Amino acid sequence: MKRVPVIAANWKMYKSKDEALEFIFKVNQAVPSNEVVESIVFPPAVFLNLLVKREGENLRIGAQNMHYADEGAFTGENSPMHVKTAGAEYVLVGHSERRIYYNEVSETVNLKLISAFRNDLIPILCVGETLEIKEEKRTQEFVNHQVEKALINVDKEYIPKLIVAYEPRWAIGTGKNATAKEASGVITHIREKIASLYSKELSEEVRIIYGGSVKPSNIEEILKEKEIDGALIGGAALDPENFIFFTQVAEKIKK
Ligand SMILES: O=C(CO)COP(=O)(O)O
């Protein structure tokens, strides 16, 4: 089954307004068409509107987080409607930094996933183990459990839209990436888990990507793995030239 590769830049809490605009200006014309590579940028929420107005045809914009409720007394939060009307088409759900610093737990991850689908946003569900769990050789058990919990009550009609990012926590921002083979192994098992929850056919439509210290020097090796459908990149994708390079490698390898 052919799956369109995904190259996603998670800006986290970086970039000034001018830097954000400069990035979009440089990248918009340079990335491959959306049918060939889905190129997505996740800026801080306050920039969503600004960046979408400048959007060309190819670069897509997503939110780094959202609340699961449609509205409510939740000071400081953005609803799915807010991020959607600001122009987001995608949303990161369950990023490890949200899980570590903001009390994101499997129940809220699950509610956000359901809410994203209901609001016609494409979620990138982030999963990944700590170093401790890896050393205990419990990676697969842990990651499969995260996937299973996240997908509770998610209707099968939405599964083809799902994107999962396998981001081992020990690899995020550390310069230490999982080897391509390691990542591919975990991703294969995630797909099997989704097959066991839904069906093999549906599981083959899900894009499963890798994140954690992806950089220009390792992107080729990672994307050469058939099971890895793209990358979610932090630090290295803040540079527009790098981002363009990542999309070009995806276009070349996944064609
Ligand atoms: O958290 C990440 C993407 O969501 C990965 O960050 P780094 O690429 O900086 O390791």
UniProtKB/TrEMBL annotation:
Which EC number(s) does the record attach to this protein?
A: 5.3.1.1
- Keyword field contains Cytoplasm: yes
As one GO molecular function, the record gives: triose-phosphate isomerase activity
Q: Give its localization.
A: Cytoplasm
Give a yes or no for keyword Isomerase in this entry. yes
Which GO cellular component does the record give, naming just one?
cytosol
UniProt cross-references to SUPFAM superfamilies, sorted A to Z = Triosephosphate isomerase (TIM)
Output the GO biological process annotations, alphabetical, semicolon-separated: gluconeogenesis; glyceraldehyde-3-phosphate biosynthetic process; glycerol catabolic process; glycolytic process
The record, for Pfam families, names: TIM
Q: Known Gene3D superfamilies for this protein? A: Aldolase class I
What this protein catalyses is: D-glyceraldehyde 3-phosphate = dihydroxyacetone phosphate
Primary location group:
cytoplasm
Pathway per its UniProt entry is:
Carbohydrate degradation; glycolysis; D-glyceraldehyde 3-phosphate from glycerone phosphate: step 1/1; Carbohydrate biosynthesis; gluconeogenesis
Catalytic residues per the record? Answer: H95 (electrophile), E167 (proton acceptor)
Q: Which residues bind substrate?
A: N10, W11, K12, G173, S213, G234, G235
The UniProt keyword set, sorted, is: Cytoplasm, Gluconeogenesis, Glycolysis, Isomerase
Question: Family, per the entry?
Answer: Belongs to the triosephosphate isomerase family.
Subunit note: Homodimer.
> NCBIfam families under this entry?
tim
* Protein task: Involved in the gluconeogenesis. Catalyzes stereospecifically the conversion of dihydroxyacetone phosphate (DHAP) to D-glyceraldehyde-3-phosphate (G3P).
The protein, known as: Triosephosphate isomerase
Q: Which gene encodes it?
A: tpiA
